[in-house]
Amino acid sequence: MSKPKYFLYARKSTEDDDKQVMSIEAQLFELREFARKENIEILKEFQESKSAKKPGREKFGEMMLQIENMDGVGILAWHPDRLARNSIDGGRIIYAVDTTKIVSLRFPTFWFEPTPQGLFMLQVAFGQSKYYSDNLKQNVERGIRQKLRRGEWLTRAPFGYVNNPKTRNIEPDVVKSKIIVRAYEEYSTGKYGFESLAQFLALHGVTTKSGTPLGKASVACILKNKAYLGLTKHFNEYFPGSFAPILSLDLFEAVQKVLTDRSHPRKSKRGHNFPFTGLFRCGECGSMITAQWSTNRFGMKYRYYRCTKKKGKCEQGYLREDALVSQLKDRLEQISLPDDWTDYMLEKVEMWRQESVQLSGSAVGKLKESERETQEKLDKLVSLYLDGDIPKENYLLKKSDLLKQKVSLASKLESARQERKNWVEPLREWILDMKKATQLVSSDDFSEIKDFLYRVGTNPKLRDKSVSVSFCPPTEFARKQKTDSILSPFSAPTARGDFAMTSSEVRICEQGGTRTLKPCGTSS
């Protein structure tokens, strides 16, 4: 009987080029040297980089197909675990030995002969390889679960963080984390797209390995990465992290809103400079007020505003922009407050702010307690899932709710610690708005006038060439105080007395989608 020829098979477990780089090369060198010493003739070499834990290896399948179509061939490999770590591939090799398709198996590190004892030892070797893989999988999964319980990041740190080998966790990078915050702030303004934000990041040193700006997909991943909220990720599932967040929840949600709005982009036409369009409705038919250019008999161009008449017949005429601006400034003059009034009111607000700082201690304590209770619920939920007491669908749904609640509580707690002026600040902004009205009376920035009226005014209409704008209760209150002071002059102390409300006499109201403040007892 002629001496059999052999197929040489070498395999490494990972497909990554940067892992087990020398495994294939080392196996080939050792096997070729072994073949030379043992006078083994190599018919063909097969090598691949793929795990043998599951069946489906391409090169292994190609080798076995050739063996099954031949009569008597051998296999040379480093160890039986290079050939199979699963029962299907192991059984396929043993069956080929039983049917004499494989007449010899040679290993530098393992002895085999085609006898009942040899086949039994080969089965043991394959069984040990499968046991090692299964046991390794359980140990890795157990380690991952423990790291998730501790809130540790499992892989290489995302951009903006750096791996800390001492703590086996990640922490914000001093420089890169600030770049992330800046990128989120810029994108939340709505002025950037993926390409322009990639250029912005490139200016700050964030590029690909080749030095080119990041692609759209990479920029999108950065803008959607919940790791910046302090959450760790495993298989598209997020867990509470024990590392410091880079972003606030409000900034992250603002960016997500911009991404959502831009997911269905609309084509926009080049518009004209009509500063007051989109602000007024027709007082007769309720249609929006539009604008257009016109030229008088002297060849001078001017803008005028008129009803679109989209809701049917309407008898309203047009109003030139200069007349419209004059009426708007008259309305601004009515609500503007003298500087000594606003200065006094700002002093009062500062006093209330200091009072609120003292009263907010109990609120911080309640938030901490709620945060602790939420964490306990999360811990119990994870334990129930790991014990198999609840299905995965219910677990993921409840966990998502608890994570959102946890992030929200953390944001509120941070806000309570740093600001502690949740109701005082809107009042301060309203006072500054009244001061702003005084400045806009003499301003020619029509866009700024429109933005101000849109923010503080309600139900703006145009009818019979006359502008009507209502204001929220606190602004109407200020207008009435100013009107009364003109009709009945009074001294400064009396005026201040009219505004000297205590903090308990002010409450927040919602009107027209605008957050305002009003004195108690006034109608909304």
Strand content: 15-25%
Tell me the Rg in angstroms. Answer: 37 Å
How many domain units?
A: 3
Q: Poorly predicted ranges (pLDDT <50, ≥5 residues)?
A: 16-22, 488-524
**What's the story with the biggest beta sheet?**
4 strands, parallel
Topology:
Blueprint: E1 6-12, H1 23-38, E2 42-49, H2 58-68, E3 73-76, H3 80-83, H4 87-98, E4 102-106, H5 116-149, E5 161-164, E6 169-172, H6 176-188, H7 194-203, H8 216-224, E7 231-234, E8 237-240, H9 249-261, E9 281-282, E10 289-295, E11 301-307, E12 319-320, H10 321-335, H11 339-386, H12 392-418, H13 424-440, H14 446-456, E13 457-463, E14 466-471, H15 473-487, H16 492-499, E15 506-511, E16 514-519
Parallel strand pairs: 1-2, 1-3, 3-4, 9-13
Antiparallel strand pairs: 5-6, 7-8, 10-11, 11-12, 13-14, 15-16
Helix pairs in contact: 4-5, 6-9, 7-8, 10-13, 11-12, 11-13, 11-16
Defining traits:
16% strand, single chain, Rossmann fold, 16 strands, 3 domains, 50% helix, Hect, E3 ligase catalytic domain fold, 3-stranded mixed beta sheet, 16 helices, elongated, 524 residues, 4-stranded parallel beta sheet, alpha/beta
What does the model show?
With 524 residues, the chain is of the alpha/beta class. The protein has three domains: 6-146, Resolvase, N-terminal catalytic domain (Rossmann fold, 3-Layer(aba) Sandwich); 161-261, Hect, E3 ligase catalytic domain fold (Alpha-Beta Complex); 337-440 and 472-524, no CATH class. It is built from 16 helices and 16 strands. A four-stranded parallel β-sheet has the order 2-1-3-4, with helices on both faces. β5 (161-164) and β6 (169-172) form a beta hairpin. The longest helix has 48 residues, at 339-386. The radius of gyration is 37 Å and the shape is elongated. It starts with 5 loop residues before the first strand and ends in a 5-residue tail after the last strand. Residues 16-22 and 488-524 have low confidence and may be disordered.
